[in-house]
Design a protein that fits this description.
The chain has eleven helices and 15 strands. By secondary structure, the chain is α/β, with parallel strands linked by helices. It has a single domain (6-170, 205-229, 262-308), classed as Rossmann fold.
Length: 334
């Protein structure tokens, strides 16, 4: 990031975008221009109140949609670093409106790639999701396609100094539409509905996600899907942490939901490297083999058949740990 002068983030008014922008502004004062690209003018207005232009003169707010390649091309003029965080991510909405999710998550991803190729961008990191590994819902399938587009984009960069990579992580604590904010709102009703008592999820804080993207921008060779080593939680423990005195009726799994999420499948194991803090899934047909990648960047190959599953994780958050994280990262505090 020390070489970055002009940075653009798609979906910049979302939960991740706001946390990422705040960190970049605090940590990298040398950045001249930070472009917030999103389609919601109200959220841009509200964000401008939090980051007033007189205090942050380098921020630019670009109204636009990743479905619009012309607008993306204009927004990326003289940009050298791109973080792609824009997506339609609500599972039930994607199931009901499948082609809308395809237009944003797949066609929009390709539009971002083409705009980066056209404008001399040097570093690109796209955000993915655990639902992209062995997907069973449309959202996960569209993000898997997006991941493939970004990793394969390294094959068409020609002689450009350009690297495309992906970060894939689990549920972001406190993000819009996720279970913890939903339970905090529902607590007042005295009822916290449980989809399935066996359900587990990976957990990452917003700031941990931000740090991972910044790390990937500095360390990616190009083509990797980076996966963090993060804890899991049981949905029953989340309900106990937020509303121990509430009723916890079992309501059944929603369409497109898994009992456990997976970020690395056993089929990925032959192309996966353990980098201590993160895993890196190398693309098939990459210029790097596992051996050449570990030789140049360090790390160790994972065992054949290795899989990374929220239900079989080595580390689970306890009820007390969940309560502490919620106090530190969400409002209202417990």
């Amino acid at each position: 990031m020390q070489d970055t002068q002009n940075l653009l983030i798609t979906g910049g008014t979302g939960s991740f975008g706001k946390a990422f922008v705040r960190t970049v502004l605090d940590r990298y004062p040398h950045i001249q221009r930070l472009v917030i690209f999103s389609r919601d003018e109200l959220k841009q207005f509200e964000m401008a109140q939090a980051f007033p232009p007189e205090q942050y003169p380098g921020i630019r707010y670009f109204l636009g949609d990743v479905r619009d390649p012309d607008r993306l091309n204009r927004a990326m003029e003289q940009v050298d670093t791109v973080v792609h965080a824009s997506a339609l991510k609500q599972v039930p909405a994607a199931e009901y409106n499948p082609f809308e999710a395809i237009k944003t998550n797949i066609l929009g991803a390709q539009n971002v790639i083409e705009a980066c190729l056209n404008n001399g961008v040097k570093r690109v990191v796209a955000l993915s999701t655990d639902k992209a590994a062995a997907p069973i819902n449309l959202y996960g399938a569209t993000k898997l396609c997006s991941d493939k587009l970004f990793t394969a984009a390294n094959n068409i960069k020609g002689g450009r100094d350009l690297r495309f990579s992906v970060v894939r992580y689990g549920n972001v604590m406190g993000s819009r539409g996720s279970v913890i904010p939903f339970f905090l709102r529902q607590r007042e009703t005295g009822v916290l509905p449980i989809t399935d008592p066996e359900m587990t999820r990976f957990n990452i804080t917003l700031q941990e996600g931000v740090e991972m993207v910044l790390w990937a921008l500095d360390n990616a060779a190009g083509g990797e899907i980076f996966v963090p080593k993060i804890p899991s939680y049981r949905i029953t423990d989340v309900a106990q942490a937020i509303g121990p005195d509430c009723e916890h009726p079992i309501v059944g799994v929603r369409p497109g939901e898994k009992i456990h999420e997976e970020m690395i499948t056993a089929s990925d194991s032959c192309n996966t490297v353990d980098l201590a803090r993160y895993f890196a899934i190398l693309p098939a047909g990459s210029s790097y083999t596992v051996e050449s990648y570990t030789s140049e960047f360090g790390g160790l190959p994972v065992e054949p058949g290795f899989a990374y599953n929220s239900g079989a994780n080595e580390r689970f958050l306890s009820v007390d740990e969940l309560q502490g994280l919620i106090r530190n990262h969400l409002e209202p505090a417990l």
